[in-house]
Amino acid sequence: AADKIRLIPQDFFAELCEQIIQHLNHKIPGVNTAELCQRIQTSGVEINIGDLAKIANILSFLFSTAARNNLSTEELVSTLGSAGSMLPKHAVQVIRHMWNEQGKAIALSEDARNMATVGQFVDMKWKLGVAMSSDTCRSLKYPYVTVTLTVADPSGQITDKSFEMTIPQFKNFFRQFKEMASVLETV
């Protein structure tokens, strides 16, 4: 991971750390590594989304562990150094700065000790389509609904999950949402 961190320019690394801390403070639902990876690649750096996601997970673990242990900035930096860390100097400087500026907010958060173990819903998109034909059936005229859910997993990685439903399945899905809405209104 340290080799991949060396590739990331300091400003992008700082942005990644900032998003992770905001996620841990429950200010944003997750870290959009796909969008950040695309911007890093556009700047000319060869990195793939899987490597960036691993770095984000490592940093998230680092910051949440430091918050749980209520580490000071100097304790965090010395722990990074004593662990035989091969982190580049710019990364340690960014971590030091971010923890010094915003680390206390994570440590003071009442949820810092109980980080979420389930994902968080971010967005939902849907579209109605009609399958006109296929290679095995000339005339389908079969309507379907495609739903794309955007979720942030517990580590903060934002991903899209897509699925298709028949019209009866969609009606059942819709009915369940209406039931949830009516229950939420009573709360």
SSE layout:
Layout lengths: L1 H6 L2 H15 L8 H10 L6 H20 L4 H10 L6 H20 L11 E12 L10 E11 L5 E9 H20 L1
Antiparallel strand pairs: 1-2, 2-3
Organism: Falcunculus frontatus
Family: Belongs to the COMM domain-containing protein 6 family.
GO molecular function: NF-kappaB binding
Notes on the protein architecture:
- The chain is an alpha+beta fold and 187 residues long.
- The chain folds into 2 domains: 1-115, no CATH class; 120-185, Nuclear Transport Factor 2, Chain: A.
- The chain has helices spanning 2-7, 10-24, 33-42, 49-68, 73-82, 89-108, 167-186; strands at 120-131, 142-152, 158-166.
- A 3-stranded antiparallel sheet has the order 1-2-3.
- The longest helix is centred in the first third of the chain and has 20 residues, at 49-68.
